[in-house]
Structure formats: structure tokens, C-alpha cells
Design a protein that fits this description.
Blueprint lengths: L1 E5 L4 H11 L5 E6 L2 E4 L3 H5 L7 E6 L4 H8 L3 E2 L1
Antiparallel strand pairs: 1-4, 1-5, 2-3, 2-4
């Protein structure tokens, strides 16, 4: 499992993020406090507080480099 912080602070960012990761067979979870939601679910993402960065857990057996390159625009330190 890989963990990164992502910023999804606008509707456009959420839509493009979901479109970008939906092409991968890996599982993605967003963790905000005690809530864990499927990162491929637009409705789920909008149920979270998007005003601050959110932890993204990536469960990938392969394609890790491609995934990290794809999500680079959303990753924050």
C-alpha cells in the first residue's frame, strides 16, 4: 500500500481525479478522519471535507509508476 496526500478542493479537480484513476485496476481509498471511501466514487468524495488535503491509499500490485505519474497534479506535501 502507498499513501499520499491529495488536494481535491474543486469540483473540476474531483471530476478529473476520478476520471484519471478509473482507468487503473488498482483500489484507491480516501481517508478523512474516521471516514474511508472509494476514491473512484464521485458522490463519496463529495461527502468528505475537501477544504484540506486528504490521505489517498493506493493498493496496486502493478502500474505503481504510472499511477504516481497520473496523480502527480493532485499530490501535495
Amino acid at each position: 500500500m502507498t499513501q499520499v496526500k491529495v488536494s481535491l478542493n474543486s469540483m473540476e479537480k474531483v471530476k478529473s481525479f476520478v476520471n484519471d484513476i478509473s482507468g487503473f485496476k488498482a483500489d484507491f481509498d480516501l481517508v478523512s478522519g474516521r471516514y474511508v471511501i472509494d476514491a473512484k466514487s464521485i458522490m463519496g468524495i463529495f461527502s468528505l471535507d475537501l477544504s484540506s488535503p486528504i490521505q489517498l491509499n493506493i493498493y496496486a500490485d502493478h502500474d505503481e509508476e504510472a499511477i504516481m505519474e497520473t496523480i502527480k497534479p493532485y499530490v501535495v506535501d
